Each structure stands twice: as C-alpha cells, then as structure tokens.
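Q: What would this complex look like in 3D?
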Amino acid sequence: MAWLRYALGMAEQDRRARVAIERVTPQVDGGRFPVKRVLGGELEVEAFVFIDGQDAVQAVLQVRTEGEKDWEDLPMHRVGPDRWAGRCVPGEVGRYAYRVVGWPDRFQTWLQGLRKRLDAGLDGSLELSDGVALLHRYAETSDPPLRSQLMGLAERLPTEGLALLDENALAVVSASDPRRLATVSSVYEVVVDPARAAFSAWYELFPRSASPDQTRVGTLRDVQTRLAYVAELGFDTLYLPPIHPIGRVNRKGRNNRISAEAGDVGSPWAIGSEEGGHTSLHPELGSLDDLDRLVEAARGRGIEIALDMAFQCAPDHPWVKAHPDWFARRGDGSIKYAENPPKKYQDIFPFDFETNDWRGLWDALRDVFLFWGEHGVRTFRVDNPHTKPFPFWEWCLREVKRVHPDAVFLSEAFTRPLVAERLAKVGFTQSYDYFPWKNTKGEIEAYFSDLSRNLDFLRPSSWINTPDILSEYLQLGGRPAATVRLVLAATLSANYGVYGPVFELGEVTPREPDSEEYLDSEKYEVRHWMLEQPHSLRRLVRRVNRIRQDHPALQRDGNLRFHNTSDDAVICFTKSCDEDVVLVVANVDPTGARSAWIELDTEALGLDTGRPYQVHDMLGEERFLWSGARNLVQLDPRVQPAKIFRIRHRIRSEADFEYYT
Amino acid sequence: MAWLRYALGMAEQDRRARVAIERVTPQVDGGRFPVKRVLGGELEVEAFVFIDGQDAVQAVLQVRTEGEKDWEDLPMHRVGPDRWAGRCVPGEVGRYAYRVVGWPDRFQTWLQGLRKRLDAGLDGSLELSDGVALLHRYAETSDPPLRSQLMGLAERLPTEGLALLDENALAVVSASDPRRLATVSSVYEVVVDPARAAFSAWYELFPRSASPDQTRVGTLRDVQTRLAYVAELGFDTLYLPPIHPIGRVNRKGRNNRISAEAGDVGSPWAIGSEEGGHTSLHPELGSLDDLDRLVEAARGRGIEIALDMAFQCAPDHPWVKAHPDWFARRGDGSIKYAENPPKKYQDIFPFDFETNDWRGLWDALRDVFLFWGEHGVRTFRVDNPHTKPFPFWEWCLREVKRVHPDAVFLSEAFTRPLVAERLAKVGFTQSYDYFPWKNTKGEIEAYFSDLSRNLDFLRPSSWINTPDILSEYLQLGGRPAATVRLVLAATLSANYGVYGPVFELGEVTPREPDSEEYLDSEKYEVRHWMLEQPHSLRRLVRRVNRIRQDHPALQRDGNLRFHNTSDDAVICFTKSCDEDVVLVVANVDPTGARSAWIELDTEALGLDTGRPYQVHDMLGEERFLWSGARNLVQLDPRVQPAKIFRIRHRIRSEADFEYYT
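A: Here is my prediction, written as structure tokens for the whole assembly.
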C-alpha cells in the first residue's frame, strides 16, 4: 500500500534512480508556461545534475517538437561542480519540449576509482576484471557495431590496462552507456518565434487617412502606395487599426463626441455593421483582393502587415443578432455595453466569455485570426487583451500558432504589470510596455531594469506614441522631446513602434489640456497628411532605423547596461553583442543644454582602459578619441539632444606601423 | 482533438476559470518537496490572485492532512494590490497539503459596479434587479438557513437598496458564494514537526565511557545516572553513538590503528557481529529494558534520547550472511569494503542500494528506525546520509514519519551544500552545518546569510565539535576559543550541539598535528572522565543554555541580523522575536583584547535612538546605558571574550515619576 502510494508520486521513474536534477533554467513558473526564443537564436539549458556519494554522473538535454513522441539527445557539459549546460539551436519556428536526463556513469565511476587506486600505488588487477564485466554489460544493450567494439575492448583490457582507454575507446563506451536507472527532469517548453518577434520596428497608420487626394477617403490601395514611404523610413511592420465595417448605432462623433453627426465616420474599434463583422473589410477600404495585394507588396519590401484584433462589437455587428447569448445582459434584457462610470461606451458591446456557448464564441474568435491568416497576415496587434480571460488567450493563441507557427501577437495591455506579464506568459509574442510614461532618467533606468527580469517570456515593445497616448512629455517638449524619445525607444528596446505620420510631422496638440488623445484624432475622423515637409523627422527616423539594422547589439534585449553620469538629466547606456558595442547618451531635459561626465563600466564592456579608443556618433557623424572610463559629453537639445555612438575597441597606435620595433 | 489535448493540460479545471494564481509562497522547488514548520508555529501562505478586467476576486487557503480527502477552508485577505495571505496553525504534527483557490466574486463585482454608477450620479435601478438575480442564483446552491436569508435579502434589495447590505448581509452573501468557475492552484505540502525540531540543544556522549567506576566499561544505566549532569547543563537531546554490537573482523585499534590488539573495543560505527546487527544492543551496554528505562527517565527530565543510524555493516554483521546480495562485490567475489585510496576501511561494508533485492534492503533499513521507534526513540542522528541515495531517504523517512510523525532526523552530511540541501529537501529534519569551519567574522557572516535563504526546508544544526571534528581553532585557541564557539553556536543557531565531556573539560589534543580527530579518541577506546574539575566550562554551558531557554529570540532561525563593527575580529549580531531582542558581541580573536565600536541597525531593531536604552550582559551580569547606534564594547578573551546582551527598549526617565508633569 505504502509502496503504491509512493510510486504514484514518483511517476514512472525507477525508484532507485539516484541522480537528482534541480534548478533547470530557463523556465517560467516551474514549466507551467513556455519560455520564448527566436529562430536563429539558441536555447541554452542549464541544470544541477548530481548524485549521492562520489559516483560520476552523465547528463543530456533532450528536445522534441510539439506532437512528436521521440526525444532527440543533445550533449551537455559540466560548467560548474554540479552544473551542466547544453544548447539547442531550433531549426524551425514552433513549440518544443525539453528536459534533462541524468544517470550514474558506471564506467567513469569505475575508471576514477581505479585511477585513484593506481595513483595511491595499490593493485588494480581485480578492478580491471570489474571493468571487463562492465563492458560486457554495456555490450548486452548495444547495437552490433558498438557491441563488437566493446567486446574487443573487454578482451584487451586485462592485458593492456588503462592505456587502452584512449579518447576513442571512451567515446565508444560512452555511446553505448545503457543509462541504467536514469532520472528524467520535468518537461519544459519553448516557443520558437520568427526572428522578427525579437527585433522589429512598427509603424502605425490609419488607412482611411492615407489618401494623397484631399477629396476622398484613403483605401488599402493608398496604403500600398504608402509602402515606399514606410520602407524609406526603415520600418518592417506596418500596423493598421481595425479595417472592418464600423457600427452605425450609437456611433461616436469627431473628437469622441457622444453622438455622431452626418458624415462622421466613427471609430474603427466599434466593429461591425450590417456590412459585416470581424471577418469583413470596411467597404470603403477596398476588397479582400486589395488586402492580399497589399500584404504581398509589403512583404516584397520586407514589411509585414499587422492587423488589429479588437474583440468587441458595435450594436449592429451581425453577431449581436446571430448570437445574442454571446453577450451579457442587464436587468431589462438589454445587452450590457462597456462602461467605466461616469463614462459610457454605448457603441461597444463586450463579449461574455463565460457564456454557456463559450465554445462557440471562442471558436469564432479563433477563426477570426485564422481568416486573416489565410490572407497572409501573420502579425496581430491585440486590443485590450487584459479585459478578456487569460485561459481564452492561452487556448486561442496556441490554436492559431498550431496553424501559423510564425504568427506574432502584440499585447496592448496598459494595466498592472502582473496582468501584462500573465498575458505574455499565456502566449503573447510581444507586449506594449510603459515606456511612454517613463521619461526621466531614474524612471527609465528603474523600469528597464525591471523589464530585464522577465525577458524569458515577455518581449517589451516600446512605443513613442499611439492614437491614445500623446504623452505630456511629447506635448510640451517639442522637437527635442520627439528626437530623444525616438532614440530611446529604438535603442533601449529591440522592438519599438511609432504612430505616424503625426509623429514625424510633429503633431502634438491634445484634444483638451489634460488629455493624452490627439486633437482631431484619426480615431474619429479622416485626416489628410502632407508628408513632404521640411520640419519632418523622417530623415532622423530613417537614420535611426538604419543604425538598428547595422548593429546586432540593437537587435536583442537582455544586453542593456546603464552607466553613471554626472547629470541627472543625462542618461547613458550601452548594448553589446560580441564585438558590437553601441553607446547611447541622451539629454532627457528638452529645455536646456547639458554637459555631463559619463562613467563607463569599462570592465563590463571589455574596454582596454590603458589605450585610447574611438567613439563614433552615428547620428551627428562626429568621431571622438576617448580614454579611460570618464569622458565629457555635451548635449544641446536645440542641436542634437542624443548621440548614438559606436565604440571601436582598438585604435591604431605607432605599434601598428610596419617599421615599429 | 485540439480541445482534448488542451483539456488534459489543464487538469480538471473548467476552461473558463478566469482567475490566475501565481507565486504561492512558501514552497520548495515548485512544490516538489514539502516546506517545514513546527507545532506551535504557523504556516503563512501568500499568493497573487488576480483576474482579467476589473472584476473582484475572492480567495481561500485550503488545507488538509495527509490521507484526508476533504479540504478545510481558511480565510485569505488582501495584503497588496493582487497579493493575498492566509495562515494556518496546525494542531498536530504530521504532513499537510495546502493550496489556494480563487474565483471571480460576482457579488462584489456587481456591488462595486453599482457603487461606481451611484457615485457618478447615474441611475442604479436596473442594476438592483441584477443584484436580486444574483442573490437568487446564490440561493440555489445554498443550504436552507442561508438560502432563506438570501431570499430575504433579495426581496428587500429593490426597495432598500445598498443600505441593506451591511456587514452581516455581506457575510451571508459571501458564505453562500457558489465559487463558480474557481481556479485551484498547485498543491503544496508542509511537514509539521514537533517544536524541538526547530529549537534544540544536543549533547553527545559515548555510553561506554560513562562509567563512574574506572574499572569497568560504561552502560546504559550509567548514562541514566549521567542524565542529571546533562540536565544541569541544560541540554534537551542526548545523542548516543551507535549502541549495537561491534564487528570483530578487521576491527580497528586505538587511535584508528589498522588492526586491533587484544582488548580493543572497536568503533561503534563498525556495526554488527554474531551478537546481532542494527536492531540489537551491544551486550556490554545493557538490555533493551535498560534502554526503555533510559528513554523514559530522560523524558522525565525533558531530554530526548537520540540514536545514531549508520547504515553500513561490519564484515561479521548477520546480514552479510543472510543477505549476501545486499552488498556489491569485487571481481573475485569478495564484498567491496569502503575505500578512499589510499585509505581502506576493511571493517566497513557499504550497502548496494541498487541491488535487485532493493525492496528487501530498503524495508529492512526502514524497520531499523521502526524498531527503535517502538522503544520510544524519536530522534535519530543519521551517519553519512550523503553516501546513500536521495530517493531511499525520501521514501524511508516518510515511511517512518507515517508511523511516528514526531520523529526528528539529523543529517550528518559534510559535503557540497547542494547535496546537503537535497537531503534536507527529501526529509531530514535538521542538518549539521559547516559552523565548525566558520571561525572568522567574514566567514560567519557570509555563511549564515547563505543559510538564511533555505530555512523553509533546511534547519541548520551548529556543532561546536564532534568526535571527528576538533577544529584547529579549538585546538589552538584554548578556553577563549571554546567560550566564543559555545556562545556563537548557541546564539547564531536555534539548534546546536556539543560533544562532551571533552568539550567542557577542555580536551583539545589532536591525534596527530594535522588531524581533526582527538588523541585517544572515544571512537576507538573506552575513556573515563572526571567531570568535577575546577576548569570545567559546565557553569558557562548551563548559563548559555539558560539564556536560550529564557529568550524566544534564540529559539528560532530566520531572525538573525548582523551589525557593523569597527574591528574585523569583533562580530555583532542580534536575534529578535517581537519585543525580545538579544544582542551578541564576540571577539573571535582568542589571542588579544579588542575594543570595537559596534553600529546597531537601530531602525531595523525598532530602537528609539532619541532616548538611552539599557543593555544587560547576561553572561557577565553587567548593565550599560547606551544611546544612539554607535557604542563601544571591550572584549578581553582572558576575561570574557563574548557578551550576550538583552536589550531593554525602554528606559525609565524622569517622565516615569508619578509627580512629573
């Protein structure tokens, strides 16, 4: 009885399995959620693998793709007294499982015992016969070629002794180890996303404002024309707010007025009308063919089209009639609209994810992703995911990735960090971070240090602005503020985004003094933009994106290091990747020039402080010769409030001359 | 298909369960191992419990004893935005499971929504009818008394409104919450040990050396006589090295000589002869009746008898013949003796825990514990557990605790911390720590800070000396060293031990210059001790143990705080428990007097630095009036190398006089 109870607790492992496996990394919540990696990167797994007594142990990393039954062995090697490491370089996007297997290495144990005896001058002949027995035992479970080699070794061991056991012989023995009484760790998972999941530059624009012709509304074809501009700026993801039919019932007016006037076009987030819902296109934007062409043309320029998934309905969305039970109701039988008293959103019906027909609702929402997936869209920005259940997302995103393992989902959850983190855990590929509200040096340093703790599962996406977020800093700081925020977003984070063309055109007027929404926002009306303006920041944007393309150090997170400066308004950090070191120094005070001593952690950067080194500002195209850790940087916001230096580790000296002796 | 796969991953929980539960504490390795607590203490459980959107949540802690099916609810309350805490005060020793259950609190959600509406001046009549519907739904699943109360509330709600929902009404609603779509956390376990597991003072002595009569060997009856002495010294655990028959084959001689001479008594750790094995008593020590009487007499004085479990055999142990397959063999068929080349331990056969008859062997070893358990022994010191498999201990200790849940096991694993920690995880109650080799201030501070991280599962036991460990510090430092080590062991750790009477009699001669073993060690011969000697430390030992008894702060771990001093040889720390604050200052240099400024972290100690406070040295019976954080302490090792202060927070001032105005 007691045996049985215990055996159940230990799963299927032999009770005698002596090897302990602890602290497997990476892992999220003990393996409850997958870690995230990208194609082209690697998964480095470590674990403590150890045993009672003095016996030798051996360990392998095992990996398999989702749905496969067989595990593939990958070697692990010792990196500390009991710490083992192995690495896996996934060859495809998808979901993989991994685990660590450890076992007593009988042959090594025997060998180290014998060596100790011989070193102590003791006789080892009895032990040699133990070795022969062990080789025979290994041979029993080996395939013929290995078996005959083992038998050969066994035959020669008594006469030739340890000299026989060269590297080749030990490799044969190791390859035939029956791994008797092996211990298997818990199973962990990793989601391997496409490379763009970890490195991307997003540009958001409203298609209906993309018309070059002031007399008509923009279309998907206009967006296709705009691709050249987006590509010139250097963005790789073009995100379009919802492109579905817009509800007419309780439609909001310009500047979010309670009711629309004739001609008001409504908010794209009020989804659905008699013209269709989440799988329809707004008729004025064009046809599905236009979309297909846009997606293809964009991809031809290295740009992914990202669609907005906002899971909510306008009152005239077809689902409201077809599936009345997908919505919660008030006491009078009317559908509950969204509300945050005193604010009412009578143009928005949220779904009731706990409805009895939840399977029908959840399937329909998953099918929305799959529908656009069939039109080539693989990138989705998800609106307010934190107001929908975590288990829905966990199921839905996994279902979509089963069909499109290269899909990328950006979570727009401006809520408590715990909630945003949970959404990342349950499957979102990227997460809007709180960068827009982190403007002082202290705020930025603290926040990005916090973020760095969760990079195994949460990829921050730093947005300079969005249609909902025109920060006070941008409103008041003018061009210097815009410049600094661009440089910071694009260099602090490997994933960043900007909402244009308002950004590059310097539009910063809020709807009302305390608002973070734009005046005459595109959310509620069609706008026409003159892109060719002398004050446009487009050249700076292009330059910054070019620098990102050129520098591997800027294409990943987790390599960020802040350095001290003598001025609280001057922030200084580096990102490094192998030899590539990018140093950013920015004056976050848009109102005044600053000179600051910056103090590089030269040891961490691997800089030889005994020699001068060159720093090259890739924005201003200036070069400086620095030496030591402390150097002076001057930043005048009216001229150039931020510098992005490339650090050249090695400077020529006279010793480089051929004739130098 | 996909549904099914997913459902399996989510266990039996409803897929719609929206509440997330994260970071449940305490837990060891994600719940793989139990945490440890003691009877009289409490288990404080915390978890993040949260949900999508703005809905209210509710959480309870659930606990059940091992083997029970039903969970008992214990309340949790919010201690942070999403953090919940609950506590359980176990009423019995044993093994308990606990988990956290969270669910959307539908009534609170409704209530907070309605309040928000009303606060915003909106109409709430429709919402009141929602509330009525909710009360009816709660009533459906409630027992009659609650049901009728709910129906009463439902009837009055439309007319009386929110005023109806006073504390009592809300308690009725809360008690009847059907907890629809609740989320259940992983299950964690806690082992509740007797109080002595967390606070104990051990004294080790060799029974055969306990004879007051120089002409004969000591017996268990002599040990019984010695109880008065042990009790006078203030110890609560009397640990006896193995009391079994000692092997004659290959017996070691005095001072660990390779072979015994006539009359040599052998090492008690070479267990077993034709007179019996692990469940027999050495005939010269007495009878099982003597043992029973000793255990009972000891308990009458508040002392537990601890036996030594050394799982190994002398060559003439009965099991060697009866169970030849329990031992590994060399190439010539002989049994493998213990060996660490060039050292051979031919008097010791280790078990082969992987033998085919492992079930037979494991059962027999468990039965050894149970045998002594039937003789009233509940405390076991386990010899070299790190040379036996972890899974054996996990199974065995649990089996023993199933029968004797108050059993205490002390692990003697002087090996790598990872291995010692694993043994604590798999079930050892206490663990010898590396205190004997931590003698400088820096070593002690670093080591005890390390230990503090693992207190949820590892209870350190700090030993001043053992028959195997006569540290260089004790060998060379004389009486000051012994005094300091006593004070440090007894105050740094709630569990400590000493091997006597050598300790209090000041015996410090090693067998040879580099050895940590005693000359003429009791391990290999019978000794006779004169306890009544003027230089004995017994009065100091008694005093220190008395102070431990009087001060709750010294009866637990995890409350240790080091404070800065101006001298690297002067260590300073406090232990606190509520109002009780004990301050220890010690000079770890046994050769010279030191004066040091100590700098108390007065804020952490809750000391009012605006007023003087009294410190009372309970060893020297001196009192000082201190003020502020910095005060001078003088420690002359020839007089008193350490002080144990009691801090009196509040000093009388003139304001305490009755006539003071």
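A: To summarize the key features: Chain B touches chain A through 57 residues (CB under 8 Å). The longest strand of chain B covers residues 94-104.
Q: Very helpful, thank you.
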